[in-house]
């Protein structure tokens, strides 16, 4: 299958911008930083467009690139020591959410922000963005079987966090 | 363990979270960044058209240079053979016009040979003489 032409890439990828921006806000809790990360992700994706497999989900591929861009940013800014193992990156972010979503349900948003990154992403992608397991599995590079476990834990943790809020 | 109604309520709240819309400024920034990237790609891409044109000119130049009778070309093979064949003939004719006999030419060759032999013998004697001088000195 021929790689994406620059114009094809632009057409397909730019259609995912709202989604990517929302994900970036969930990942970094900073709308300004989220915009930088989205732009960086687009440039990275453009340069790597030959590696996109035709027939797979463009938004899942872009989400994976965005997530890696976030990790790179964290490493660069030393929020997370690069020697920390990948699973330890999933620690909760103590900062409150600053994106406009917080206005809709501030308690829920704060509880979400307190979840480890993986659990937060799984919940958002599955219940808010209504992605399939297949796409989430591709975006987060985890087997589909693991997603079910993460979702269950994420929901329980979210419920506990909400109960603590009350 | 979460009760079913509790779970339903939680999922309802999650589903009610509004989806964010990317700011217009971000769209413009990304579009501009992608346009710059595309322009950079175009600049970095080799100009195949110009390269093909240059190759055509080089080929044409070679064809002209190698064409028979071209002023850029040296003597061709037959001309070179004729010239090399003509050279000794010219020399012979020149010698004949000067009138040297075969005998005289043979004498010249022999004299030259003798002179070379004499030189070699002289050198050898000289070497031996030096050796003898050395031996006498000791």
Order of helices and strands of chain B: HHHHH
Annotated CATH topology of the largest domain in chain A? Rna Polymerase Sigma Factor, Chain: A
Largest sheet of chain B: none
User: Helicity of chain A, in percent?
Assistant: 55-70%
CATH class of the largest domain in chain A: Mainly Alpha
Got a strand count of chain A? 0
Structural class determined from secondary elements of chain B: mainly alpha
Looking at the overall shape, the CATH architecture of the largest domain in chain A is Orthogonal Bundle
Measured by DSSP, the beta-strand proportion of chain A falls in under 5%
Mean of pLDDT of chain B: 78
Written overview of the protein:
- The complex is a heterodimer of chains A (166) and B (138).
- Chain A is an all-alpha fold and 166 residues long.
- Chain A has 2 domains: 1-93, Orthogonal Bundle (Rna Polymerase Sigma Factor, Chain: A); 103-166, Winged helix-like DNA-binding domain superfamily/Winged helix DNA-binding domain (Arc Repressor Mutant, subunit A), CATH 1.10.10.
- Chain A is built from 9 helices and no strands.
- The longest helix of chain A has 22 residues, at 144-165.
- Chain A is globular and about 55 Å long.
- The termini of chain A are far apart.
- Chain B has 138 residues and is an all-alpha fold.
- Helix content of chain B is 80%, strand content 0%.
- Chain B has helices at 4-16, 24-44, 48-66, 77-98, 102-137.
- The longest helix of chain B is centred in the last third of the chain and has 36 residues, at 102-137.
- Chain B is elongated, with a radius of gyration of 48 Å.
- The model of chain B has no long low-confidence stretch (mean pLDDT 78).
- Chain A binds chain B through residues 6, 10, 14, 17-22, 25, 35, 38-39, 42-43, 46-47, 99-101, 104-105, 108-109, 123, 127-129, 155-156, 158-159, 162, and chain B through 2, 6-7, 10-11, 13-23, 25-27, 29-31, 33-34, 37-38, 41.
């Amino acid at each position: 299958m021929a790689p994406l032409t620059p114009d094809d890439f632009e057409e397909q990828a730019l259609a995912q911008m709202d989604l990517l921006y929302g994900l970036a806000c969930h990942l970094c809790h900073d709308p300004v930083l989220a915009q930088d990360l989205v732009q960086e992700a687009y440039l990275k994706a453009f340069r790597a467009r030959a590696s996109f497999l035709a027939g797979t989900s463009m938004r899942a591929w872009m989400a994976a690139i965005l997530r890696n861009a976030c990790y790179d940013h964290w490493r660069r800014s030393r929020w997370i020591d690069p020697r920390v193992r990948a699973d330890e990156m999933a620690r909760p972010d103590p900062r409150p959410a600053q994106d406009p979503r917080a206005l809709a349900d501030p308690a829920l948003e704060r509880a979400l922000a307190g979840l480890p990154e993986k659990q937060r992403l799984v919940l958002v992608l599955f219940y808010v963005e209504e992605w399939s397991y297949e796409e989430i599995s591709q975006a987060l590079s985890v087997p589909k079987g693991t997603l079910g476990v993460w979702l269950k834990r994420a929901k329980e943790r979210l419920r506990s966090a909400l109960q603590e809020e009350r | 363990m979460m009760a079913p109604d509790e779970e339903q309520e939680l999922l309802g709240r999650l589903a009610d979270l509004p989806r964010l819309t990317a700011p217009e400024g971000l769209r413009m920034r990304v579009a501009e960044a992608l346009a710059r990237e595309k322009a950079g790609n175009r600049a970095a891409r080799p100009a195949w058209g110009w390269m093909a044109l240059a190759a055509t000119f080089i080929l044409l130049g070679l064809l002209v240079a190698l064409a028979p009778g071209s002023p850029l070309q040296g003597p061709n093979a037959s001309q070179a053979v004729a010239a090399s064949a003509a050279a000794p003939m010219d020399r012979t004719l020149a010698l004949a016009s000067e009138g040297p006999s075969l005998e005289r030419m043979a004498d010249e060759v022999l004299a030259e040979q003798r002179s070379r032999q004499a030189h070699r013998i002289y050198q050898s004697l000289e070497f031996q003489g030096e050796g003898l001088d050395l031996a006498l000195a000791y």
